[in-house]
Design brief:
By secondary structure, the chain is α/β, with parallel strands linked by helices. The protein has helices spanning about 5-10, 35-40, 55-60, 65-70, 85-100, 115, 130-140, 160-170, 195-200, 215-225, 245-255, 260-280, 280-305, 310-320, 325-344; strands at about 15, 15-20, 25, 45-55, 80, 105-110, 145-150, 175-180, 205-210, 230-235. The protein has an eight-stranded parallel beta barrel with strand order 3-4-5-6-7-8-9-10, surrounded by seven helices. Strands 1-2 form a two-stranded antiparallel ribbon.
Length: about 350
């Protein structure tokens, strides 16, 4: 075992909070609600992060913002806040802490136009002085650790993540996560894990590499190229909430795991479907659950080597149903079909 491998098997801490392992679930709007975070945590993720929540919406009591910040009930509760005004960030952080947040994460990485258009998310990387004011206001408002998620910079001509990381650490931020793309790349091209190394070298606090991590091999390569202390899995966990936990365990033990059986996958998606419908109420929950059903069917069909035409038929039947009992019945039939095809 190399020294680096031994180091990565030690517990990682954010302030005084020890993580279960070094593989984190990324905050994803419309995805990492409390039911999905709860399932992913149960399946072994080292840390799960809430959906990004606008700090002013949280302060003004918007019901969906409050729901986004709901604790998953397993492990440290991390609330990610976005905003462009110090008063909203500070008060939003205080509200999140009072509601049980163990960690506040500041979003300076979201590339979405409706976020950057309001000078939040990755738009803040164009004005580091203002970004630092937001960081300082958030840290001053709470007693819990504050972390920061960013991109490499706004575009290829302004790669300033190392500078922002240094200044954030000096202000009191206790962990940095870097998505290896600029804002202007959105999600195009490949994440540049090598470029994250400059951030790791710039700070002494834990650094997390994010972007395009969809397998253990991706995670290992990202860690090696970036020198980061941990990895964050985003879209790779869609449809396979067990992935962060599997990667985390393999990094610690070296033991590879296969995907859960189709029967296990069916159990997971049924439980998630029911919990999402309860979380939002049936009318809204049915809409939110469809994305999870679709991703789960895609993953299961891949495991079962199901032809694209057959998968399309099952997706059409299940994703258009408005009746939970019908969804459960069709899911059982679909997974039976997938298992039969896998065994043929």
């Amino acid at each position: 075992m190399t020294g680096l491998e031994r180091e990565r098997r030690k517990p990682l801490k954010i302030g005084g909070i020890e993580l279960a392992n070094r593989v984190l679930l990324a905050p994803m709007s419309g995805v990492t609600d409390a039911p999905f975070r709860r399932l992913t945590a149960r399946l072994g993720a080292g840390l799960v992060v809430s959906e990004m929540t606008a700090s002013d919406d949280l302060v003004n009591g918007r019901p969906m913002s409050r729901l986004r910040c709901e604790a998953a009930g397993i492990g440290p509760h991390v609330v990610q806040l976005a905003g462009c005004e110090t008063r909203w960030m500070a008060e939003g952080a205080r509200i999140a802490e009072a509601a049980g947040a163990d960690i506040i994460d500041i979003n300076m990485g979201c590339p979405a136009r409706h976020v950057t258009g309001g000078q939040s998310g990755s738009a803040l990387m164009r004005d580091l002085d203002h970004a630092l004011k937001l960081i300082e206001a958030t840290i001053a408002a709470v007693k819990v650790p504050v972390t920061l998620k960013m991109r490499l910079g706004w575009d290829d001509r302004s790669i300033n993540a190392p500078e922002l990381a240094r200044r954030a650490e000096a202000a009191g931020v206790q962990m940095i996560t870097v998505h290896g793309r600029t804002r202007c790349q959105f999600y195009k091209g490949d994440a540049d894990w090598d470029a994250v190394r400059a951030v790791k070298d710039a700070v002494a606090i834990p650094t997390v590499v994010n972007g395009d991590i969809a397998s253990f091999e991706d995670a290992l390569t990202a860690l090696e190229k970036s020198g980061a202390d941990a990895v964050m899995v985003g879209r790779g966990a869609q449809g396979q909430p067990w992935l962060p936990g599997q990667i985390g365990r393999r990094l610690e033990t070296g033991v590879a795991e296969t995907a859960p059986s189709l029967a296990e996958q069916l159990k997971h998606i049924r439980a998630l479907y029911d919990e999402v419908c309860r979380h939002y109420g049936l009318r809204v929950g049915l809409r939110h659950a469809r994305k999870h059903l679709g991703w789960a069917l895609d993953v299961a069909a891949h495991c079962g080597r199901v032809p694209a035409e057959a998968l399309r038929g099952w997706r059409q039947k299940i994703l258009t149903s408005e009746e939970p009992s019908s969804v459960h019945r069709s899911l059982g039939e679909a997974y039976d079909d997938f298992a039969w095809r896998a065994a043929a």
